[in-house]
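Box 3.1 — From sequence to structure: Alpha-2,8-sialyltransferase 8B
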Amino acid sequence: MALLQRPPPRGQGGPGLGILGGRRSSFRKKCILFKWFLLLCLFVSLFQRFNVREEEEAETMIQRRKRREDSGKSDVLMVPMEEEDDDKDEDRNEDDSDDDAMTTIKTMRGKGDGLVSSMLRERDLDKFGRGSEYAYANESDKDYSSVIVAKDNAYGEKYDVKFTDVNGKKTHFQMGDVLGEILPEEERRATRTHGSCALVGNSGTLLKSSFGEEIDGHEAVMRVNFAPVKNFKRDVGVKTTYDFSNRENARRLVEKGWENSRPDSVALFFEGSSPTNRKRIFEPLVKKYGKSLKVQFLHPGFVNRAHDLWNALKEIIEKEKNKQFHDKPMSGWYAVNFMMQRCESLDLYGFEPYTSKAKATAPYHYFDQVQGVVSVHSFDFAVFAYQKFAKVFPLRIRTKSGWIGAAED
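Predicted structure (token representation):
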């Protein structure tokens, strides 16, 4: 009979089996808790290491900045432009000037869709760092021989911008301190590619001016934001060497087409440093017009220096005039800075200051009835600044009554 007896239920038979089963269950619970504890420790460790890494990177940035300050060594200055939404300026981050992630932008000379992939490959420069030879334009570097590069150390030391012009000629232009050294004579002679130049603004004061023939008499002529010349030849001329444009007009060019066709001019843009602008505006523009237009972008370092120059002169002129001016430069400001680097002399047309008082005397633009806005830009300040330029560079402002030159001290 004992041989036919059913075995006891698990955990209830023989001496000690119930206790052993309970211990196994308790052991499994402890293992699960221990696993969760290990996961928690791993998470805490990763979080701490992430914070330490951020602190180390911050310290490295400070050390790098100090090293540049002590040695005066030039780096590639690649400062991103500020993003603008609904015409609201965002605060600038001073540490942006040390951001190695900023990519350079190539000069584009109308070779088609391949330019787009070139723009995307610019991100590859990140891995080389700002001190790498790959970040500089030189004869042996075929991939980046046309990259516009600004060398500086973010402390106002003079820098050299190298670029390849539309004719394939390698040249450079320089810019120094706020006054006096803006355009050193010996460097100006070596870097200018044009003799006399005219920069034509869009002011309504050009109407009935009869400046057209005078403007076309210059060796090179720049126009701003694709302003039309058809039906305005008598007042603004027709010759166009450069079309200087902001991003809004670049967007219109992509969406609505080339309304004021000037295929022989260079389309020059200055807001190409923003990744958003490049992706949404400039890449589509190159895809659409790359084979028919000569397209170039100003290097963000040069654009940033022009903005810094605005701020420096603004501080000086505000003290002189006992008046506050707006912080945001207009497109014409960057155009003037560019042309001063390319020309032996520069005459400005349609650059009379547009103020609230001027609304009654002339329209904002010579070609439409758009109402001007004086709450964003200080056009009168720009004229004061150009008069500062005229002290060290042959620059004049044309008006119907004559010429405005350097301001008297």
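Summary of the box: Confidence is low (pLDDT under 50) at residues 52-167, 171-184.
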